[in-house]
Amino acid sequence: MKDKTPxxxxxxxxxWESDSYIENKKNKRPSPIRSIYKxxxxxxxxxxxxxxxxxFITGYFAWATAIASVEVFTKMGLxxxxxxxxxxxxxxxxx
Length: 95
Hints:
The chain is mostly helical. It has helices at 6-13, 19-25, 32-58, 61-88.
């Protein structure tokens, strides 16, 4: 009996829909606009977290607002640069 290729084994386990799915995804990088959307959605979550932590620690609503307001811009820029850097890295598939 012929040994199965890694791709055939993956198909047997149901992880991939078809060969064309793999070929369509191969060497595609996330677009910059997708990175922007991810940046914004993550900042909403993370800034809300920072706000509540700051409020809890300081006990002052105004201080928590100030802290969250500053960090939202600095970390948004840092996350976008980080995301675009990772988008440049190409990982090789084992098959």
